[in-house]
Amino acid sequence: xxxxxxxxxxxxxxxxxxxxxxxxxxxxxxxxxxxxxxxxxxxxxxxxxxxxxxxxxxxxxxxxxxxxxxxxxxxxxxxxxxxxxxxxxxxxxxxxxx
Amino acid sequence: xxxxxxxxxxxxxxxxxxxxxxxxxxxxxxxxxxxxxxxxxxxxxxxxxxxxxxxxxxxxxxxxxxxxxxxxxxxxxxxxxxxxxxxxxxxxxxxxxxxxxxxxxxxxxxxxxxxxxxxxxxxxxxxxxxxxxxxxxxxxxxxxxxxxxxxxxxxxxxxxxxxxxxxxxxxxxxxxxxxxxxxxxxxxxxxxxxxxxxxxxxxxxxxxxxxxxxxxxxxxxxxxxxxxxxxxxxxxxxxxxxxxxxxxxxxxxxxxxxxxxxxxxxxxxxxxxxxxxxxxxxxxxxxxxxxxxxxxxxxxxxxxxxxxxxxxxxxxxxxxxxxxxxxxxxxxxxxxxxxxxxxxxxxxxxxxxxxxxxxxxxxxxxxxxxxxxxxxxxxxxxxxxxxxxxxxxxxxxxxxxxxxxxxxxxxxxxxxxxxxxxxxxxxxxxxxxxxxxxxxxxxxxxxxxxxxxxxxxxxxxxxxxxxxxxxxxxxxxxxxxxxxxxxxxxxxxxxxxxxxxxxxxxxxxxxxxxxxxxxxxxxxxxxxxxxxxxxxxxxxxxxxxxxxxxxxxxxxxxxxxxxxxxxxxxxxxxxxxxxxxxxxxxxxxxxxxxxxxxxxxxxxxxxxxxxxxxxxxxxxxxxxxxxxxxxxxxxxxxxxxxxxxxxxxxxxxxxxxxxxxxxxxxxxxxxxxxxxxxxxxxxxxxxxxxxxxxxxxxxxxxxxxxxxxxxxxxxxxxxxxxxxxxxxxxxxxxxxxxxxxxxxxxxxxxxxxxxxxxxxxxxxxxxxxxxxxxxxxxxxxxxxxxxxxxxxxxxxxxxxxxxxxxxxxxxxxxxxxxxxxxxxxxxxxxxxxxxxxxxxxxxxxxxxxxxxxxxxxxxxxxxxxxxxxxxxxxxxxxxxxxxxxxxxxxxxxxxxxxxxxxxxxxxxxxxxxxxxxxxxxxxxxxxxxxxxxxxxxxxxxxxxxxxxxxxxxxxxxxxxxxxxxxxxxxxxxxxxxxxxxxxxxxxxxxxxxxxxxxxxxxx
Lengths: 98, 1003
Description:
- The structure holds 2 protein chains of 2 kinds.
- By secondary structure, chain A is mainly beta.
- Chain A has one helix at 36-44, and strands at 3-6, 10-13, 18-22, 52-58, 66-72, 77-83.
- Helix content of chain A is 9%, strand content 35%.
- In chain A, the strands form 2 sheets. Chain A has a 4-stranded antiparallel β-sheet with strand order 3-4-5-6, with no helix packed on it. A two-stranded antiparallel ribbon of chain A has the order 1-2.
- The longest helix of chain A has 9 residues, at 36-44.
- Chain A is globular.
- Chain B is of the alpha+beta class.
- Chain B has 6 domains: 15-129, Ubiquitin-like (UB roll); 163-291 and 424-487, FAD/NAD(P)-binding domain (3-Layer(bba) Sandwich), CATH 3.50.50.60; 295-420, FAD/NAD(P)-binding domain, CATH 3.50.50.60; 517-597, Orthogonal Bundle (Arc Repressor Mutant, subunit A), CATH 1.10.10; 668-857, Gyrase A, domain 2 (2-Layer Sandwich), CATH 3.30.1360; 906-1002, Elongation Factor Tu (Ef-tu), domain 3 (Beta Barrel), CATH 2.40.30.
- Helix content of chain B is 22%, strand content 27%.
- The longest helix of chain B has 18 residues, at 470-487.
- At the A-B interface, helix 1 of A face helix 20 of B.
C-alpha cells in the first residue's frame, strides 16, 4: 500500500489514486505529419525502466488532479512529487521522456 | 483434577481454581483458565488429535504455538464453525467444542489410513503422475482426492458473528511482546511516541512466560508484569494482545488480526465483534517476532508424542503440564538441555540423545549434574507406537553423521522432545522486502539489515534477528526501539539502563538435516502435507532443482502453516541432494498472511447492504411500488421491465415495445451520465474529444457524438447540447459517466491546461424521463408552458420552461426512433414529474418501460450500445457511422489512427443487421457466425451476434452482428451453429429495421 503525496492534498493511501503511466509524453502537435511508426510510438510504446521512472498519478478519490511522481521501480521508493507543468526534479540515473 | 493425569500439582500460569469444561471428538474433558486447547488435551493425555493430510497417519500435538502443523481442529458447530484452527493457538474457554479433521469415520480409526500401508506407492508427484489421463476425468478425480485429503469443513450457513476493520497510525509499531519487543516498546513509549505493541498470544511476554530465567534478580514474569504496567500507563501506547500481524506491505503498512472475543467462545462477546482486522500505517517498525524451533528429520518422527523440545518446556513451565513420564530429548544443540532439566525437575525420567560428537557445554554439564543420562553422537533410528510413542531405537552415528553404525538399542519413553535448532521468525521482515543471509556457523537465516527496503523502515530485535541470549535480547530491544523512536522524531536514541539477566553461553549446533537410519523408514520434514526426505530425494532425481519447483512438486511448505517448521529442514535436504550449500538453494517466498485470516474479518462491516454501493434515481420509489424488475447497470438499479399480472419477461417487453410505438412510453433515463461543460474554449475541447464538428452548433441545439481513444476506437457516445455560447450539456452512457469525466479532465489537465474549460458532473442533479411515442407531444403539452410545435421546437433541440409546475429542460432527442422528449427537472422534483406524467398519461395508456424494451427499440433503429455492439476494436466506420467523422477537422483524438494499416484495411469486422431465416427464433447474443459450415468444430468464425431480440413491431426476430467484411455481404445467408449442435441461418441486412427514413422522430 504505497503512501503517495499528492502535491495538492498531502500524503494519502494508494487506493485514492490512479496510475497514469509514463509522464512527460506530449501529444504530437500535428499527428497527420507523423509516420505510422512515429504515431505508433506515441500511442503504444512506453518506457518500463528498471530504476528511476517519471510517471503520472491522479488523485481520483480526492482532488481529482493529475500530478507527476518520480519512482524507483526496483524499490518502489518515491523520489519526488510535482505538479503538472512543473519541472521534474533532477535524479541521478533518471532519464526523462521527451 | 480427574482425568488430567499429566497435570502438575503446581506451577505454570494456569488458574487451578477455575476449571473449564470442553468437548473434543465427542468426549468431555476439563482444563483450567489459562490453558490452550493443546495444553488441556495434553493434560488429559489425549495423544492422537488429527490425521495427516495424505497418509492419514495418526498425529499428535507438535508445538506450543501458531506454527503447529499437525493439531488442526474444526472449532465449534453450525455457523460458528472454523476449520484448520491450530490447537496450541486456541485459548480454552468453558464449553469449547472441537473435533479432529482429516479423519473418517474417527480419528482413532480412519479408513483412508490404508494410504499409509501403500505409502511406497504414493511418492512425490503421485497425483500429478497418476491422474493425468484422460484429461476429462481430472475433475472427477479431483473431487475424490479433495474429499479424501480434506482440510476441514466450510460452514454451510451464514457466519453469525460480527467483524470490524479498523485503520490506525503510529510512530513505532512493535511486533511481538517477548523480551526484545517489550524492551523496544518501553523505550519508544518513554519518548512520547505513539506506539502500538501487538502480540499474537492472549498473554504478553513471549518466551519469558515459559522461561525459568531471572531479570533484574527476579523471575522474568515479574519484569513482564512491570513492563506491561508501565506501558499501560502511557497515553500514546496501545497494547494489543491476541493480535497477529498477518502482513507487511509497502510503506510500512501492516495488517493485523485481533481476536477480540474468540477466547470467550461463540456468543459470549456481547456487543464486541468476534475479530477486528487492523490496517496500520507505521512510521517505524520494530520486529520482535521471536524464533520457531526446527524439528529433527528422523525415522518415524511423526508419531504422536514426538514434540518440539521447546514446546515440551512451555507445557511444563507455562501450563503446568508434563507431557510424558519418560522423556527422551533428541537434540543437535544446547537448547534441548533446558527442556531436559525442566522435565527432570517436574518429575519425568529424562534421557538425552545428542547428535553432537561430544557435547560439553555449560548446559550439558548442568544436565549431567542433575543425573540426566546423555547419549552423545547418537541418532534415533525408529519410533515405536503408532498412536503414542512407546519407545525409540537409537544407534551410534558415524563420524561424518551421514550414517549409523554399531548395534541399535531401545529406550522406553512416552515423549520424544526434539530440537533441530531455532529459526528466526523472519516472515514479516521478508515480506517487507528485506533480504536474508545464511549464518553458516549457527545454521540459520537472519535478516540482512543492509538490504532493508528504503520504503519499509524496520529493525529486527531479539531472536528474530538471531539474538537468542536473554540479556542480549533485552539490550537489542532497547537499542532498536530507541532508534525507531528517534527516526520517527522522538527522543535522542538513548536507551537508558538495560535490565540485567544472566548470559548462558551455548555450544555450537551440529546441523543434521536428515538423520540417518537403517532401511526405508518415513522421515518427515513436512508434517502438514506429509512430505518426507525421500520425496525430496526423488524430486531431485527427477530433475527438480529450483526450490520453487521442488516446493510445489513435493508440497513442502504448502499447507496452511506455510512450512513454518519445515522449510529450512527441506532446504537442508535439497542442498545435500544437489551437493550445494543451503544459500545456493535459495529460499521460497514468505507471503501474507502469517497465519490464516478469516474472510469475515477482512470484509468487516462491509457486508449485506454495505457490501456494494447501490445508486438509485429520484424516481426509484415509484419503480418499487409498481413492481419493476431491476437490472444492475454499473452501481445503478435500473428498471429492467415492468411485468403486469401474469406476464413473464418476454410478454412484458413485447407489450412495452408495442406501446411505445403505438401510443406513448416513459423511461427513467436519470442514470445517463451528465456533464456540464463551461468556458470560452468548450467547443474547442469538444472538437478534439468528438469526431464531428461543434463550433457551429447553434445555441439550443443538440448533436450526437462518439468519442474515440487514440487508437481510433469508440469508447463512449451520447448527445451534447449547446445551452449558451460557452456552455454545453454532455450526456454519456450510464456505465461510462465516470470514465468520460476522467477522460475530459485528463486531457484538460495534462495536455491542454491552457484551455479555459470547466467540467462538472451533474448526473445526480437532474432527474430525467424520456417520453417516447406518437402521443408524446399531446401528453407533454398538457403540463408544460414550453411551445412544443414541431417547427418551433424541432428535432435535436432544447427548450427551457416549466413542466408540472417545476423548472424543466426538455431535449427533443430520441433513442427509440419515435417522437420523443427527454424531460429534465432538478432531481428533487423527479418523483413529482414522473407522477404527474403518469397521471396525465393515463388517457393515452402511457406505458412505463425498462431497459430491456429500450434495447429492443433502439436496436430496431440500429442505434448502437457502446460495449455491447462495439468491443474496443470498432471504429465509427466499422459500425456504419462514416457520417459522424468530420472530414474537415485537422485533428481529433483517434483521427490519426484511422490511417494506420490495420485500421484502414478493407474487410474489417463491421456492424450489420441479421434477419434469422426462422422469424420465430431469437439468436443467442454472443453466438458465432460462420460462412463455411462444417460438420463439427473447428470452423472459421467470421463474427458474432451482438444484440438479438424479438420485435413486436416487425413481428419477427432480428439481430445486430459484427461480421468480417459485413458491409459487402448484404443479402448473404450465414450460419450460426449453436451450443446444442443445431444450426440457425440468417440473412445479412443493413442495421436499420424500422422506419428507415427516420420520419417518426422528426414528426
